[in-house]
Predict the 3D structure of the following.
Amino acid sequence: MQSKPVKSRGEAMKLVSLTKFEWNKYMVYIVFLIVFLIFSVTLGENGFLTNNNLLNILRQTSMISIMAVAGTFVLASGQIDLTVGSVAAMTAMIVALILQHTNSIWLAIIGGLAFGALTGSVNGLLVTRLKLPAFLATLGMMQVIRGAAMWITNTAAVPITNNTFNTIFGIGDLGGVSVLILWTILFYLAGIFVFNKLPFGRHVLATGGNEQSAKYSGINTDWIKMKVFILSGMFAAFAGILYAGRMQSGRFSFGEGDELSVIAAVVLGGAAMKGGSGSVLRTLIGSILMGVITNALILAGLRTAQQVIIQGLILVLAVALSNLAQKNKN
Amino acid sequence: MEQVLKMENIIKTFGETQVLKNVNFDLIVGEVHALAGGNGAGKSTLMKIMTGVYTKDSGDIYLEGKPVRIDSTDDAKRQGIAMIFQELSLVHSMTIAENIFLGDELKSNLTLNKKEMNQRANIVLQELGIDIDPNLTVENLSVGMSQMVEIAKAVNKQAKIIVFDEPTASLSAKETEKLFELIENLKQKGTTIVYISHRMNEIMQICDRITILKDGAHALTESLTNLTLEQIVSYFVPYQNKQVKFEWKKRELGSESLTLLSVNNLTVENKVQDVSFSIREGEIVGIAGLMGSGRTEILETLFGIRPMDSGSIEISGKKARIKTINDAINAGLGLVPEDRRRQGLVLEHTLKENFILPSIKKNPKLSSFIINEKNANQLSEETVEEFNVKTSGINKVISLLSGGNQQKIVIAKWMKMNPKVMLLDEPTAGVDIGAKSEIINIIRNYADKKNGVLLVSSELTELLAACDRILVLYEGRLIKELNREEIKREEELQHAIQAG
């Protein structure tokens, strides 16, 4: 860093325009702080600030948070993946069935993740080979997979009796911290590392920022998109494993609507829907922010119907804020 | 003869450069009027003022003798002035009839009257001698036919004056012939045509009068029957005193220098026909030719963007199989593409991110598994220094830099990977004159390090300043190969490009 004794007017101007431009980077932190403060004051007496409640928020958001790690890559590359919720459900079914028949945790995990990778590959192929828009390709696949999850047991839930599995992937804790939170931390460390430290992250951003320029720079953008969809599928599958562990069963209805929550988390984290931007850490804040809001609504005594409405409004607000930040940039 | 339009003392300034200096321009009813001049002479700007895309700083416009204000494209449309753009403005998913009536659809009560629109469209097309079903969707049409539809749309809107901007650049010979018939047809109906083109043969063939602009000033308006090709071309060379020193320096290659790139019998679709040439160590070879002559296509094929139909490429004596862009990069090529904003940069990313993009995975100093941010910063800083990029820092978003500084980064991101041969497509387009000469110097210095350069440019001054040898393309064929010493004046090169 160079330090200059005198700041010219031009430099001062530059600082102003810099803060203006960086708004989309800090938005999520600012909003988080404001929301958190408001709830601390208004809902402090309802137990919002207790350790238990705060850990509970983190625990409840972990599946969304983990899917949103990959969601950051998906949006950064200019794509969208609506299959994540149904992949989580189908994976939970697969895992539960494998455990029921073999009682092998390894086999269950491998089977679940393989399903996620397979779905990601299909999504990727639909987008890169058949040139379908990601929105439609994954919208269709979402229905196919949700239907399959219902069909496989005729909508019956499959209980999981393997306690080791349930402990590791759902209900256990380490020093009082839920395994779900530990898994989330692990996935975020990995996600931040890959996104920020590996050339792959830059290639993903370039693909979403300007695909043609990325191609002309020697990046195989189709292959990047394939990898991103596979990543998204596998992360969603892992979220499904956590659903299964936490609920000690597989159920077709797991993760309904999660795809929207994931997008909201990533966009709240400052990513633009058109691709080329995003940050894994900020996505985490976005995801927790939504968890905080949901939690507060429950504490405030709102009913499920009202919660759903508020969640919809948050999504709209997130995109509107993101648009505003983008506009500021130009 | 009745005057339909007169523009008087038009002045337009962009930033600090005056691009139009007291320009006068007039059109006579039913004439085909050529508008010509070198690059940056102000042709497009003048026409954009006439069609309301830009507003003039000062000057007057008269339509049929009456003064008019044209402040927007809507104003121009209302006055019956239409422009057929190079990038056509049709909605691809709609039918021909829907496009023709776009913006003033016919209705019966509240609903669209499709039948009536189809019938009326059919009449317009028939009158223009265009034989096509107005129910067809535009995306299924050829470029030539899309252009015809565009013209029909203008005619249907009662355009009195239609401006054509390089209309034949992407047309086949047959389509060009059809277009000329149509223009003749329009002329007979009393429509006035402005024809912008670099192709003098076409201008001589179909135009009645010509106006030539030179460095933003009016140079000549004359009936074409009084002019020869040589006389016209002589006006294309910019005034000497206006030029920053774009002087050619003879460069010694040495008789021992090896061949770096050789292209043999390259054929690409109908764009490039049987083209062969080679580049030696330290040599700068230029490609001159009109738009659509196959210049860009040669570079894109060498760089793995377009597949070749036949021919072979050798790099440093070894046969190179180039199927993808990565093959080309690995074989030792780098491309500075024609469109900096669309193909060269990720505009909203920083200077550094753009700079390291192609090398981040290939340069072990930048990443051995994980990215080495320290080296990436250092290399970016050094490059900013070396290429004299004006920026407040390497983390500045690249779209905030000037065109010249952006272009330096596009060039640097490749040069810093040390390709054996750099392919440059219009590297100084949209760049100010100071940066232009800097870029030419960068290219020279690069070649001095025993590298090869293949340079495409529409600016002949630039080709003459930088190149040791110039290849002349015409309709996809290599028609001439000139050593720089042989070319005494820019007119000779201009002539070679036009002659065919």
